Amino acid sequence: MDSSVTTVLAGLDGIRTSVEDLYKDLHAHPELGLQEHRTAGKVAQALRGFGYDVTEGIGTTGVIGVLTRGSGPTVMLRADMDALPVKEDTGLPYASTVTATGRDGVEQPVMHACGHDVHVACLVGFAQLMARSTDAWQGTVVVLFQPSEENGDGAQAMIADGLTSKAPQPDVVLAQHVLPYPAGYVGTRAGSFLSAADSLRVTLHGRGAHGSAPQAAVDPVIMAAMSVIRLQTVVSRELSATTPAVLTVGSIQSGTGPNVIPDRAVLQLNVRTYDAAVRKQVLAAIERIVRAEAQGANAPKEPEFERLSAFPPTINDQEATDTVARAFAACFGDDAHTAELQTASEDMSVIPHAFGAPFTYWCIGGTSPDLYASAQKKGTVSQDIPVNHSPAFAPVMQPTLDTGIKALTASALAWLAPSSR
User: Fold this and answer.
1) Strand partners, 99
2) Lower Cβ count inside 10 Å, N or C end of the chain?
3) What is the pLDDT of residues 76-109, one digit of tens each?
4) Distance between CA atoms of 224 and 231, rounded to whole angstroms?
5) Are strands 74-80 and 99-101 parallel, antiparallel or unpaired?
6) CA–CA separation, 195 vs 193, rounded Å?
C-alpha cells in the first residue's frame, strides 16, 4: 500500500466513533430529494470545521467543499444525500420514524433505504482524514454532496445552478455505492456498470359504461392487461438473448368499482438498458405495442406517453477504473474484486460529463459477512439478503464505514499522492 495511503488512514481509529455517530444521526433523520436541508447543514458545518472552503445551496441543497494543498491534480469525490419514501422495518435502535411531504403532496414515511447515509458519512470521514494529513498529498480535493439522486434530477439541478463555475475543474471524478455484498468487499468495473433507466406513465383512453353493458364501452382495463402481456415480449422476443435489458410494469391503475367500466387506465413502466441503440429500440417498441392495442380496441383517443424520469447509463472510464483497481488491490488485497454488471441506475455521470472529466464509480459491500456466507451456502442470497430500496435494508456499520473511507482515500491518493506523479 502506498505510504501516503498508510499515513492518511493512520487517523481512521481517531475518527471512527464520530463517523459512526454521524451515520446513525443521518439514518434516523432521512430527507427526501431537494429537501435535504438538515443533512446539507450538518455536512457544511463539518467541512468548515475541517478547514474546507464551502459552498452551499447548489441546486437547492447541494454542497461542495474544496481543500487545496499546493499544485497538483484536482480530484472530485461525490456522495448522494437523499432518502426514499419507504417505511423502515429494520429494528435498528436508530431506525427512522420520520415522515415528510413528497412532491405529490402526500405525507409519507421516509428512510435511508439505499445507503446514501453511508455515502455521506464516509465522504465526511474521508474529508476529515485528508484535512488532518495534508503533508501526505498534493493537489486539490473537492468533496461534492448531491441532492435528489433518487428522482434523477439532483445532479442536473447542481449543473443548472452553475456547479461548473463554482467548483474547480476536476481531473477525475470518483464515487461509490453500498450494495448488498459482504461488508469489506470493494468492486470496480470498467466500461458499462450501471444501466440507463427510463420511467414512463402511459394513459390508455376508453369509453366508460355500466358493467352490465360492456357492448357500450371501450374497456381500457382490457387494453391495459393485453398491453402488459405484450410488453413482456419486448425483451424476450425482440432482443438477443445476450443483450441485457429489463422492462417492468410497476403500476396499473383503473376504475373505482366492480360494476363500472372506466374510461381510462394508467400504466407506469420502468426500462433498464445499457446501450443507446437498445434503449431507443425498447422505448419505440413500448409505444408501438400500446398504440396497437388501443387501435385494436377501437379506442376513442390515442394513448398518451409521459416521461417521468430518465437516468443515463454509467460507463466507467477505462484508465481511471484501472488506476482505482490497482489502488484497491494494494489497499484491500483479496477483498478487491471485479464487480458484476448492475441493473441499478444513477445520475452521477451527469456531473463529470458537464466538466468533460473522466470518472469511475465502484461499489462496496454492506451486508454482514456471516449472514451473507450463510445465505450463499444455502443458495438463498436473493431471499435472505435485503437489497437496496427494501424496508429491511440496513448496512452493518462496520466494516462498511471503514471500507468506504478507505476506498475513497486509496482512490483519491492514486492521483494526489506524490508517488503518483
Assistant:
1) 109
2) C
3) 999 999 999 999 999 999 999 999 999 889 999 9
4) 10
5) unpaired
6) 7
